[in-house]
Design a protein that fits this description.
The structure is a homodimer. By secondary structure, chain A is an alpha+beta fold. Chain A is built from eight helices and 13 strands. Chain A has a seven-stranded mixed beta sheet, with helices on both faces. A six-stranded mixed beta sheet of chain A has the order 1-2-3-6-4-5. In chain A, helix 3 links the parallel strand 4 and strand 5. The first copy, chain A, starts with a helix and ends in a 10-residue tail after the last strand. The interface between A and B is large, with 74 and 74 residues.
Chain lengths: 308, 308
């Protein structure tokens, strides 16, 4: 049984109650606690030494990543983060200065987005430093964007550049909270997800949730400099990295095709320093297709699987 | 630097915002998201193989404990749990049936308290199974019980029996949600905490939060059968276990001394099968004192410290 099958199995028929709007299977859980116009978003993410960061990573960057991953998920639902709690796992002999620097990285990011750090707990984790962050936020009920609402013919957009995140961006990415909220305020975003498992894998999540297929235009996929560097000049390998590498933490979303031109123009005004690229469209036929100059083929490769 | 000093250091001047009612340092964080009469409770707890459970533990019990620890903290603030998310860490080769049984244990407990499990994530944890659970709940603003409100002269009560939890109860305890809500509905509970680090240590938390000391009556401390078994008939060692052992997950609370008799009577009607014991009182003098038949002495021993 692989990770995906296990999770599918575990997530089947989970206990629910009348407060659950969206349970497992979107970027965040969505809960109705009785607020007049808002729902509550709820998320957890573990960041583990040797898995999500190496022991030589700058501790501030580790803290940044641990909190940033949750913030990126709140962004994907066009929400606003509120508070986070942290479960910290430490080996018997730890360097207090290193741990404090991890917290410094979290504090800095929390400050930037007005997120409160409201506590947590510390326990022994003999082999590895682990940081598990849980975040709550809010989203206006009429602005919550899920993975489920894409329509056939919708244009697919992605922010930033993709691939090769392992060379550095996975520790220094900026969660796209401002962009997501701007998008939702000005456009009818049908579906959105953050690109954390790799473009192809996350697009499949969005396709499955919306019951659709998608077609990507290879030449439009924004291949990052890091992906090119990693591919050592091999254009095919660089494209592959942009499609399959994880931890880009960019936004992937579907919007009415007729909104494309105005969206591109308005975006360039609002976020002149961040690329926004139309990379393809949603289609009724199932499956993910990649269109190159002269071929249209199925893209069957998957992104990172912890247990592959 | 020990665990306590590190945490104190990390928790200093954490980023806050206008939604925070209680940040780090109580059983749960308390957040005001704008609900008319309720606050939101927010908690995280990690349950780690080899630290919080041994590899031969029944997986259902492991799941029970992972969720139950958070429920116990919500109980300590007289709140009602709502939803939980779970970060699951698994080694490369895991037994899917074992993991599913862990989830079965969580599901069963969640069902009992009408708690929804709204997702989470799975990642690689090479050496150990880890389960980090985060829980949100609600509490009526006029019923939230903190650690801070104890008054000199208050009677101290504890539910159940204490000590020797390692012999089994740490995996099978029942979170005292019903009892905590009943207590708060009928009495003016000044301060409450769940006994997770050991009676002496958790009482010190409550004393520090309330700026007081406390005096315990040795003969009134409810020493569990497990503590006696562990102590092999040595009464002093059994008492010591009841004072210092962790993971009892009982409620420790302070209430006006004049409420003692009616509380004991009403409790016996409401919860005939669960012991409630008055074990001492809050005093103005700082420090924790233990009164035995002929002596009154400082109790300086501490409970479990992960990094001691």
């Amino acid at each position: 049984m692989n990770e995906r099958e296990l999770i599918q199995n575990l997530m089947r028929d989970l206990p629910s109650n009348e407060q659950v709007v969206v349970g497992a299977g979107d970027d965040c859980a969505v809960v109705d606690l009785g607020l007049a116009s808002d729902w509550v978003l709820f998320k957890i993410d573990a960041t583990i030494e040797g898995v999500h960061f190496t022991s030589d990573a700058a501790p501030e960057a580790v803290g940044h990543k641990a909190l940033g991953r949750c913030l990126s998920d709140v962004a994907a639902m066009a929400g606003t983060p509120s508070c986070a709690v942290i479960a910290l796992g430490l080996p018997h002999s730890f360097d207090p200065a290193y741990v404090q620097a991890i917290y410094q990285g979290m504090r800095r990011l929390a400050d930037r987005y007005h997120v409160a750090l409201v506590g947590g707990e510390t326990s022994l984790s003999p082999e590895r430093i682990t940081l598990t962050v849980s975040l709550i936020g809010t989203v206006s009920k009429d602005r919550c964007v899920r993975r489920t609402g894409a329509q056939p013919g919708d244009a697919l957009f992605v922010t930033g550049e993709l691939g090769g995140s392992i060379l550095g961006k996975h520790l220094s990415f900026e969660p796209r909270l401002a962009q997501a909220n701007w998008l939702r305020a000005h456009y009818d975003i049908h579906a959105m997800i953050d690109v954390s498992d790799g473009l192809a894998t996350d697009l499949r999540h969005l396709m499955e949730a919306s019951g659709l297929g998608a077609e990507l235009l290879a030449k439009n996929i924004p291949v990052s400099q890091a992906a090119r560097r990693k591919a050592k000049g091999n254009a095919g390998a660089a494209l592959q990295a942009a499609l399959n590498d994880g931890e880009d933490f960019e936004l992937l979303f579907a919007v009415k095709a007729t909104d494309c031109v105005t969206l591109k123009d308005a975006w360039a005004q609002a976020f002149p320093e961040l690329n926004l690229r139309c990379i393809g469209k949603m289609i009724s036929d199932p499956g993910l297709k990649l269109r190159t100059q002269d071929t249209l083929r199925e893209w069957t490769q998957h992104g990172y699987d912890h247990f592959a």
